[in-house]
Amino acid sequence: MAKKDLDWSNLGFGYMKTDKRYVSYFKDGAWDEGALVEDDTITMSECAGVLQYAQTIFEGLKAYTTEDGRIVTFRPDMNAERMINSAKRMEMPPFPKERFIDAVEQTVRANADWVPPYGSGATLYIRPYMFGQNPVIGVKPADEYQFRTFVTPVGPYFKGGAKPITIKVSDFDRAAPRGTGNIKAGLNYAMSLHAIVTAHAEGFDENVYLDPGTRTKIEETGGANVLFVDQDGNIVTPKSDSILPSITRRSLVAVAKDYLGLTVTEREVYLDEIGKFAECGLCGTAAVISPVGCINDHGKEIVFSAGREEMGPVTKKLYDTLTGIQMGHLPDKEGWVHEIC
Ligand SMILES: *Cc1c(COP(=O)(O)O)cnc(C)c1O
């Protein structure tokens, strides 16, 4: 066992095959005991449910090395619970919470040499996922499934500082009213690809989506929740049934209240009021918070004055506090940091 010889600080966000992955099969109404395997490929029927009708869900979290050399992850119980909710909505058999955490631990331990060292800024991205495997041609849920978890090292999200990004108000929707926007299903991403390619071609970093029912309220971006800071330094987050409940956003809200004493309001946020906010950030596992400097609404630039050139002061405080808890520099009052080895 020795750390892999990688240029940790210069890794991008891409897939790299690591040593072991975890697999469990669901058949005849039950999950098998699961195992770590070396084979990174999957063979299945050409008519597998996932291939024909996109019956697949996933999670994303990361493992990293703390200053005192422990390998930890962050709130894996929340990912386990969210995946159970995703499975129920997709008529898939939920993978039990304790087993999800065990699968994450086993996979990270078996690939400990791939966990980036402390201080590199890099992390080990963990991808649990599940899909319908047996042949399905008439539209119905599959009877057989695989739950798998693989890991891949990824580089620091912010190379050379967190530059605020510019995002556009999309003309496409990422979710339907009463649809699947609140679960982590591959189908939500499939339908966002055209919108992402379009936004990039127009020179924007990302899309922000409006509520699909009325198209007057802010929802979220393709892969991150939105958080605003008002002129008094308090937090406002959009409320909607079609937003994916980000674990990072929920943790930042707790940090804002319990560590920083800020007021947090979760409410409907209208597109025509966001010009009043001082800062805007995108919350997700990959970046924790990525500052937004400007939202472009069909040529009209909505600029966040306190965060236009660099991460705004409140966004920075939130970022520093949550990453401080994650890295073990600040007290972990809630027991969020989960030690693996
Ligand atoms: C995964 C995801 C997020 C971020 O969730 P985290 O749990 O914070 O990583 C936000 N929005 C969407 C649509 C997502 O799929």
Q: Could you explain the architecture of this structure?
A:
By secondary structure, this protein is an alpha+beta fold. The protein has 2 domains: 147 residues, D-amino Acid Aminotransferase, Chain A, domain 1 (2-Layer Sandwich), CATH 3.30.470; 162 residues, D-amino Acid Aminotransferase, Chain A, domain 2 (Alpha-Beta Barrel). It contains 7 helices and 18 strands. Strands 1, 2, 3, 4, 5, 6, 7, 8 and 18 form a 9-stranded antiparallel sheet that branches. Helix 6 crosses helix 7. The chain is globular. The chain starts with 20 loop residues before the first strand and ends with a strand. Pyridoxal-5'-phosphate (PLP) binds next to helix 6 and strand 15.
Order of helices and strands: EEEHEEEHHEEEHHEEEEHEEEEHE
Q: For the terminal residues, how far apart are their CA atoms?
A: 14 Å
Instruction: State the oligomer.
Output: single chain
Instruction: Describe the main β-sheet briefly.
Output: 9 strands, antiparallel
Number of domains: 2
From the spread of the alpha carbons, the general shape counts as globular
Q: Look at the helices and sheets and give the structural class.
A: alpha+beta
Low-confidence stretches: none
Residue fraction in strands: 25-35%
Task: Give the proportion of residues in helices.
Answer: 10-25%
Overall mean pLDDT stands at 96
